[in-house]
Amino acid sequence: MDVPFVRVSREQGETTRRELAEADLIDDAYEIDVEGEDLYIPVVDPDAVSGDLEVCTRSAVERDTQTTPADLLGFDPSYERLGRAVLLDEDDEERADEIAAAVIESDLPVDTVLNKASKVKGETRVRDWEVLAGENTEVVHREYGCEFALDLAAVYFSPRLATERHRVASQVADGEHAFDMFAGVGPFVIPFTKRGGTCVGVDVNGEAIEYLRENADRNGVADRVTAVHDDVRAVAPEYEDWADRIVMNLPHSADEFLESAVTIAGEDCVVHYYDIQHEDDPFGPGERAIREAAQPGYDVTVKTRRTVRSYAPHELNVCLDVRLERA
């Protein structure tokens, strides 16, 4: 069977393997292969691999299979992985308990199973969880060489956006001033600083800000991170004309904060604006709102119109990468 591999020299093999493992990109169903001076590492998602690495397709040798939850259950359960936790979304309590028991008995490297007990709610977008296995809702998640501690019951975090975060972080240049208006535990801030940026992260959730500070320490970038617990609209005047890059990842209501974004933007600033809109016109409302807020003080250029994922039937989660240049 032909599968995607990352090809690297033997000298770079272990470093690359660790980077791919931290990003959860290694396909454990196949063996790592060696040919001559090259090492071939199987990957699950070639599109998520850094552009600095070479991806190729070649024949693969299957690994001896490990016991999976599906092997024990007789059906393939739906779940997400986050660190050493498995996240379920099961309405049937008996089925949820059955899946949790199989997860723990399987060879998956996890020790916590959580089941969603509510929808995302409130200003901080958190949800309730039922602990089916393990001690609590705190996890440590690794993503593209960064490490994030967080409590799922206290903060919002989506592992599904890892590839999107990496896409944006890859654009950051050494010495940039970056401002995350809704920073959470730092999934944008931390990789920005690891690429040489100086970052400000603001959030109304005080627990998220405490985790942001902890994660800055964990990743060795605390000296270049300012974490602020406040409404960004109150903070914006303190950072007038400061930012080279702004992240606005608050779909559904980011447009309410565009005036503050314009205040924070420097002479030449890229804004990553996230929105959720109907598939008939997913980018138009956001683009019109940005132009209304920024013009005539800035020339507005839309660099990228990107669909991040499907959000609901006929609704898309999208991103506009927009350049603001002082007119």
Automatic annotation (TrEMBL):
<dbReference type="GO" id="GO:0002939">
    <property type="term" value="P:tRNA N1-guanine methylation"/>
</dbReference>
<keyword id="KW-0963">Cytoplasm</keyword>
<keyword id="KW-0808">Transferase</keyword>
<dbReference type="InterPro" id="IPR029063">
    <property type="entry name" value="SAM-dependent_MTases_sf"/>
</dbReference>
<protein>
    <submittedName>
        <fullName>Class I SAM-dependent methyltransferase family protein</fullName>
    </submittedName>
</protein>
<dbReference type="InterPro" id="IPR056744">
    <property type="entry name" value="TRM5/TYW2-like_N"/>
</dbReference>
<keyword id="KW-0489">Methyltransferase</keyword>
<dbReference type="InterPro" id="IPR030382">
    <property type="entry name" value="MeTrfase_TRM5/TYW2"/>
</dbReference>
<dbReference type="Pfam" id="PF02475">
    <property type="entry name" value="TRM5-TYW2_MTfase"/>
</dbReference>
<dbReference type="InterPro" id="IPR056743">
    <property type="entry name" value="TRM5-TYW2-like_MTfase"/>
</dbReference>
<feature type="domain" description="SAM-dependent methyltransferase TRM5/TYW2-type">
    <location>
        <begin position="79"/>
        <end position="326"/>
    </location>
</feature>
<keyword id="KW-0819">tRNA processing</keyword>
<dbReference type="InterPro" id="IPR040601">
    <property type="entry name" value="Trm5a/b_N"/>
</dbReference>
<dbReference type="Pfam" id="PF18093">
    <property type="entry name" value="Trm5_N"/>
</dbReference>
<keyword id="KW-0949">S-adenosyl-L-methionine</keyword>
<dbReference type="Pfam" id="PF25133">
    <property type="entry name" value="TYW2_N_2"/>
</dbReference>
<dbReference type="GO" id="GO:0008175">
    <property type="term" value="F:tRNA methyltransferase activity"/>
</dbReference>
<dbReference type="GO" id="GO:0005737">
    <property type="term" value="C:cytoplasm"/>
</dbReference>
